[in-house]
Amino acid sequence: MATETIQLNSSTNPTSMMKTFDGQTNKNVPVVNHTFTDEELGLLKGTKLEPLNLSKVVKLLKDPHSAMLYDRHLHILRKILRHYKNGFLMKDLVQVFKILNLCADRVDTQPFYVEPMVELIALCDRPFLNERASDELTFEQISIESISQLAYLMRVPSKEVREQICKTLQNFYTQEETRKQEVQGHKANRLEFNKKVIEESDVAETLIKSLTLLENDLETRITVLKVLQKVSKTSAKNCNKMLNANAAYNLTSRLMDFNDHEGQILFRSTEIIWNLLENGDTSIVANQLNNFECIGQLRDGFLTQLNHGYSHYDRQLRNDLLVVCSLIAEHCPNAPFIETGFCKQLTLLGTFQEVKSYNALVKHLKLGTNHEDFELKKIILNLLVLISRDSSVLPIYTDTRLLLSLFHYVRPSEKETLPREWTPAQLEEIQLHAMSCLVTLSPLLLDDFMLCQGSTRLLLLLEWCVGPENYNGAGNSLHGVGGRGSKKSQMRYCLRIMRAMTATNSDKILQDFVDQGAIGQILGVLDKFWLYGWIKEEIDVCMQTDMLSILSVLCEGEVHRQEIVGQEGVKSLVPYLTVDLGTLQSGLGHHQLLVSAVDCIWAAVVGCQITEDAFLELEGAYHLLDLLENAPSGFRNMILGCLLDLADNPKTSVHINSWRGNRDDTAAHLFCELWRQEEAQMGVSRDDKAGVSDFQKPLMGSLQAERGTIPAPAICPSPAIVDISENIRAKIYALFCKMGFGELAGLTTEDHITLTIIEHYLDFKLGEVWGEIVQELKAEDLRPVTPDREAIEAICRICDDRVQHVRAVQNQLVEAEKQQDSMDEQEYFNEIRDNQRQKEKALKDFEEYITRTSNYSYLREAKWKQESSIDASRIQLKPKAGETQHPTNIKNIGCTTFGGKNVQVHSTPQDITGGPLARYDPLEGTLYPRRTSFTPISELA
């Protein structure tokens, strides 16, 4: 505490002694030192706290000699109330709650302790007082234990005490009614500290447990629920502690057991459960509610609010109860909704507006167009979908004709509705919600789907979606995202239902769609998508993906249905193989579209002669190879599988062999490159030339080698067999088998080395399988009989020899490459040498030319050499008698070299002479006279 001091006389020692006039020291005269505190000057605000010695109070109450002095007890308790009217000190909390516990133990025998006890508890709603700034940290644990002790006082069988405890805890946690505290020299705790104390204490758990003591006290029970509602609203710790006390079960199992005409129990219990779901562990809440008692209470509460609630508040509470049931159904698929009869009642409520019912539950029930009733309809449908995970509910759905009521909305949306019906926006939202429910429920109720003529309804709706009629979708709900101002939302869910139904692979469902013309209609829709360029938005990409998937399922393995696709259908499908691969990373679903397109080509085109020929005519094989070269590695397996089945057509090999890639690569080179990349990813042991380096495991990857051979039942495939389907090597081997291993263009030496491995892939795989058999026999400590052992040894020896042979061939290829490189190098050196010799000869010829022009004797010698060469080149024959021999030499010729066929003439450049037409006069048709011009020397100067 700061103080202000005024010193009239000061000395270094306050107790210094003063001397008298006679020189003697007077020890009894002190130095004058006047000190004035803030309190004396009136600068402190607030009241002054005069704490008591509470240990004496505890002793007074506990001492057996003073145990019967009730008047003194009441007097000292009232004195405590007067002294601590602004709150308790944190350092006194231990003594205060000892006093409260002593009073609580005497309430049963001496009821007059109730009044002071209630007043003491009322003082605890104020924040505790700190003397120092560090008191919050120092006495934090004491505060937590004290508040826990306050909650434990709920054991006192006094309504006043329990009511005051609840009120104190609520005020302490929220400080809603806390008066302003100003105490001299003390500071009140912060609200955050109070909340932390409540969260770390056992208050929430204790209040839940105390509900069992309040079975006959409705008013106090409601007060406790108010406190629980406050402490669970934003605190996850409080919610978890309440769940530790089985709060969800304790609150819900007695939801409707009290005569609560105002509905406070139902409302506040539901609100607390909501808080537990939001802030606590949802799965724990659902598990605690997963029993007959809770589901039955929720059902009764819902039906009560449905039949007797007319206000906005009642309808909201009714919907909240259904949402709680939805969360239970989501986390607990086996919740007893069927056993309690709640499921059938919900189904009747969800269908009575579309399907006429005479059940007493819905006979006089009417739902309005207000927001709460609209939400009720959606929540019921959502809950029915969640309950459908239990297959025993399906007969109930069939009896109540749930699917028929949902198909009531599978129709073209109306632009206007009657005044008492849903608004157009609400009707669209209900329509989309019903269709989303059909996506889940229709595959479970196939017979009901056929009875409702579901395929016909869906195809009619699809026709309306792509028709010319204008429709401005509201797009308000989650299901309407991307469809605002159009029919795309309806079309998306229509296609999703069709995809879900075809995914069942039910023959009658697939045949029904085919009979209704689904194949041709979907192909027509795909044409419109490409015509209008609908491929840039996510909803458009998703719809096209669904349509391609539907076609795949409808046409797979059925040649007749593939013929329905025909050439026109192939024209609609081929453009999907030319999708820009840069869009695969856009996040709009183009990667799914590409997968569906390849799968659709595989199922709807490959396998039928007519569609295959049309596909090849449209360069479909080229497009597949382009995708194989440029698409990410995840697409390669599917593309190779499609290409492999297409290769059964003899015409395909010509297309594969004539294809050229981005760098003019051939298909054979591409396949070899993909093989090497796959083995590098698998960690197969190879040398720097891609040759075999591990003779014992020529095909085994690193992961397979680490796992080793583990004995397994005969029905389980071994790792060597599983490897065939896990990578693309088997498909590449099969493609080369159809293309042939010889006369392949565009292969490098590395490709030839890889090709030797591909060619013997089956042999290597056979050896790998036999190796696994041997390892399994050793692991199981089994020895085959002698003939089998000899056969196994022979097979393994043959496989090893095959590996050695392949390695020898690869070595020959490497050696041949080295020899070829050496020959190429020698040819290059020879070319350099010839060029050098040619340069030397040209230089020598020029020197001879200079010599001939400057030395006449050398010129004559050159002429003589020329003539001698000519004579030497002729055949020396003696002329016959009577024949005249004519000389062939031209006399007096000045050329001393042999001329070639071409003559190179060096003349003046045209930029100087002006060219051959420089002197031509086009008007006269004659040449200009030759002019000479000169510049006088004087001008040059």
Automatic annotation (TrEMBL):
InterPro entries: ARM-like, ARM-type_fold, CFA69, CFA69_ARM_dom. Pfam families: CFA69_ARM_rpt (PF21049). It comes from the Eukaryota. Gene3D superfamilies: Leucine-rich Repeat Variant. Residues 53-773 form the Cilia- and flagella-associated protein 69 ARM repeats domain. GO terms for biological process: positive regulation of flagellated sperm motility. GO terms for cellular component: non-motile cilium; sperm midpiece. PANTHER family: CILIA- AND FLAGELLA-ASSOCIATED PROTEIN 69. This is DgyrCDS5828.
